[in-house]
Amino acid sequence: MTLQQQAINVMERLPEDKLSQVIQFAEFLASRSNGDIDIGRNNGQKDQPLRKPGILKRKMVMAEDFDETPDCFKEYM
Question: Are 19 and 11 in contact (CB under 8 A)?
Answer without folding.
Answer: yes
